[in-house]
Amino acid sequence: MTEQPTLEAKQYFQVLRLIHAALIAGVAIFMGVCFFLHRTDLHLLLTSDMPFFLVAVAMTASLLPLSFVVHIPLLKTLKPGASLSQVQQVYQTMCLVRWSMMEASALFSLVAFFVTSNLVFVVLALVNLAVLVLKRPATEEFIAYFRAHGTEG
């Protein structure tokens, strides 16, 4: 496997932040489209007998916490003394997997809202979206991973 060239730190985080913003925008735009299409028949009905409700709650309750520990097996793939490029690749993969779990749960909730017009699903989607917004790529987090697993300097 050939070593990929290392991006400058500023470029690297610009790319990650752009990907993060695109994921957030995709969920937000889909939410807007759903609201536009269902603006006349919205309702708030909290029933646990709806299959969509059970699945949406299960996805939110499982994928959100899982997204905070999914990085552990990925970090184990790094060997001590890993290069900056290797740490960048693992960090980017970790971010993408984490974000995709949050996005999947939000999008499922929005699809359920689209099908049922029930605002309960929007609440679940907003919870997922809020966590996704808060888990933006952080230079401090990357530096901590690099110091723990990469070479110094």
Q: Could you give the topology of this structure?
A:
Elements: H1 9-37, H2 51-67, H3 71-76, H4 84-116, H5 120-134, H6 139-149
Helix pairs in contact: 1-4, 1-5, 2-4, 2-5, 4-5, 4-6
Task: Give an overview of the whole structure.
This protein is an all-alpha fold and 153 residues long. The chain has one domain (9-33, 58-149). It contains six helices and no strands. The longest helix is centred in the middle third of the chain and has 33 residues, at 84-116. The model has no long low-confidence stretch (mean pLDDT 84).
Q: Which assembly state applies to the chains in this document?
A: single chain
Rough outline = elongated
Largest sheet: none
Secondary-structure-based class equals mainly alpha
Identify low-pLDDT runs: none
Please name the defining characteristics of this protein.
single chain; 153 residues; mainly alpha; 6 helices; 73% helix
Structure described in brief:
The protein is an all-alpha fold. It has helices at residues 9-37, 51-67, 71-76, 84-116, 120-134, 139-149. The protein starts with 8 loop residues before the first helix and ends with a helix.
